[in-house]
């Protein structure tokens, strides 16, 4: 029992630390986006609650690789050993072996915390926005992995070529001053 509460408080401590660094990185991203779009003050943004993970964010962007990347909402993550966003459904084992990983570019790093918890980090440079992990996470876990157009990468096309083909109308033009529409407790918290 004592061991359990010790585990929980350690897990909470780790989660809070991760959450703080994610907030910082999203804050930095938003600030650079604000600077970049000071002309018209609008940016393209994905509503992760509308996205149906069709995969077109990887193939339809004018940039290659896409300006769309996966973001992980640590507040929603179960830190599962068996992560549907990380492991292929037919994986031989729950290990980090390349053949077991769902991500085609190995952009998700799995870090052991303590039995039975693992933490999943997205390497933005490797992510191509294919949404495979998002679909896996949504169908198996809490849906903590989700897509966003990264404003420090996006060239802010007049007409976003992904928005034109998005089957669920999940991409729209919003004021640059609006926070990223991300999942989790930190959603829409004011920037520092
Ligand atoms: S095109 Fe739309 S539905 Fe498809 S992955 Fe991108 S945001 Fe999601
Ligand atoms: S599965 Fe696709 S969306 Fe997810 S991290 Fe890998 S490249 Fe990015
Ligand atoms: S606005 Fe252009 S660069 Fe940005 S996500 Fe859409 S297609 Fe890609």
Give an account of the 3D structure:
It is a single chain. With 192 residues, this protein is of the alpha+beta class. The protein has one domain (42-178). The protein is built from four helices and six strands; from the N terminus they run αβαβββαβαβ. A two-stranded antiparallel sheet has the order 1-6. The chain has a two-stranded antiparallel sheet with strand order 2-5. Strand 3 (108-114) and strand 4 form a beta hairpin. It is globular. The model is unreliable at 1-11 and 17-39 (pLDDT under 50). Bound molecules: iron/sulfur cluster (3 copies). One iron/sulfur cluster binds at residues 46, 51-57, 131, 147, 162, 166-168, 170-171.
């Amino acid at each position: 029992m004592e061991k359990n509460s010790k585990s929980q408080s350690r897990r909470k401590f780790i989660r809070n630390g991760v959450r703080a660094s994610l907030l910082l990185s999203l804050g930095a991203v938003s600030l650079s986006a604000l600077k970049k779009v000071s002309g018209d003050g609008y940016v393209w943004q994905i509503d992760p609650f509308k996205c149906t993970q069709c995969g077109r964010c990887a193939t339809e962007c004018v940039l290659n690789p896409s300006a769309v990347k996966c973001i992980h909402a640590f507040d929603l993550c179960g830190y599962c050993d068996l992560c549907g966003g990380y492991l292929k459904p037919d994986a031989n084992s729950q290990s980090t072996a390349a053949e077991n990983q769902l991500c085609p570019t190995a952009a998700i790093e799995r870090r052991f915390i303590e039995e039975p918890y693992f933490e999943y980090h997205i390497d933005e440079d490797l992510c191509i926005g294919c949404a495979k992990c998002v679909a896996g996470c949504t169908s198996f876990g809490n849906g903590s992995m989700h897509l966003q157009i990264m404003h420090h990468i996006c060239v802010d096309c007049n007409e976003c070529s992904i928005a034109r083909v998005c089957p669920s109308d999940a991409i729209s033009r919003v004021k640059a001053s609006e926070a990223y529409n991300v999942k989790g407790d930190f959603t829409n918290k004011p920037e520092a």
